[in-house]
Amino acid sequence: MEGSGDQPSPQPAHPGDHRIRDGDYVVLKREDVFKAVQVQRRKKVTFEKQWFYLDNVIGHSYGTTFEVTSGGSLQPKKKKKEEPTSETKEAGIDNRNIIDDGKSQKLTQDDIKALKDKGIKGEEIVQQLIENSTTFRDKTEFAQDKYIKKKKKKYEAIITIVKPSTRILSIMYYAREPGKINHMRYDTLAQMLTLGNIRAGNKMIVMETCAGLVLGAMMERMGGFGSIIQLYPGGGPVRAATACFGFPKSFLSGLYEFPLNKVDSLLNGTFSAEMLSSEPKDSASVEESNGALEEKQTSEQENEDSMAEAPEEQEHMEIVSQDPEYKEPKEKGSKKDYIQEKQRRQEEQRKRHLEAAALLSERNADGLIVASRFHPTPLLLSLLDFVAPSRPFVAYCQYKEPLLECYTKLRERGGVINLRLSETWLRNYQVLPDRSHPKLLMSGGGGYLLSGFTVAMDTLKADTSLKSNVSTLESCKTEEPAAKKQKCSGSDS
What we know:
This protein has 493 residues and is of the alpha/beta class. The protein is built from 17 helices and 16 strands. The chain has helices at 86-89, 109-117, 122-131, 141-155, 166-176, 186-195, 213-222, 240-244, 263-268, 274-277, 280-302, 310-316, 324-327, 335-361, 376-383, 401-413, 457-492, and strands at residues 25-30, 33-38, 44-47, 50-53, 65-68, 74-76, 158-162, 203-208, 227-232, 255-259, 367-371, 392-397, 416-422, 429-430, 437-438, 448-454. The radius of gyration is 31 Å and the shape is globular.
């Protein structure tokens, strides 16, 4: 282009983002199974009944496929041209003569275990299984491909390292721990981000109990520009899924949190800084117990195949104040430092709460997102007062009935237009040559969304008062003929 020499070409903000670094949060992928972990040297990771170390992935590009070798080491898998072997070329016409009696495979479990002990790779074990199968050549071509795919999934230890994103993490949580995100399906989350008009530079309010997944999705879409006020119940916000995104510290500068139990006082105008001064005595301990409870639930529910390492996630988020050194300074010499650090964190949290209160008091938020296990009606009726007119709001619920009640209450309240209650329908398809079809197993439901826009209340009040005046005038007019009849009857008498 002409004139382009006067302006320097744009450079990427983070040139090394495509490389895996020590301390990064990554997602392990094997077939359709995902797991989020933090890269740390000499730390054993268990995934799909296999253990390994992530030391060798540092420095490689995201999307690289690794193979688990002896000793738990990961080695990049070399790409090979897939050439059909002589066995796969021979295929039967149909499977009518194949009897599944368990005797078609000559190799026993002891033989397969001996092959593994010798260090033979999974690809060679699969080839041995094909050669020792008496019915493989009689199967159809489709059945042979299905057999090979099944055996590769069982014996080949191939893992791909991918970069965390909203799509990957939402699929991971929905597949493995849907209860933690209130059974919110990934397409429903995408609809929330679209209907809520989440974009850079916005000032958003979010109330969610989805382990921080909705918050992380909003932060990813806003790109570190704008501000987000997170309302949380209990002692502190839970951001386990948010930590899995691995956001830089610059993203956290626009993130604020405010306790949900102080919203009413903020609306009534009775909120003051003194209300937060009594909190720090116990707030840190409550947050610690909250983080410990989250870690305990993660370890109990997920065991060795846990999706995300809870201690590292809580350590990564600075605002939640759940660092390991903050929990363990029990020595006499460090007790004083521990108290000072605790007071500093409490003062910092109190300052952030006051900043969030100031932002909410402006009542000019650009949108509202509600996705919690609580009933949406009281949340929306109170939080909509912080949203500026002509701004979108979205409420998610796993069930339809609470949103129907919320729809009715919002109609009675006024100040909203274009109310819409929707449910997205999703079905996965298998797309392969000559065998594309809908998959037999599909999701029964991904939750419901109530969306709409805010409008100024003054005009609505004027319209309603005008309507009431018109209705009273009409009632008076209807009553006039009856009064005349009574007068006429009185004069006749």
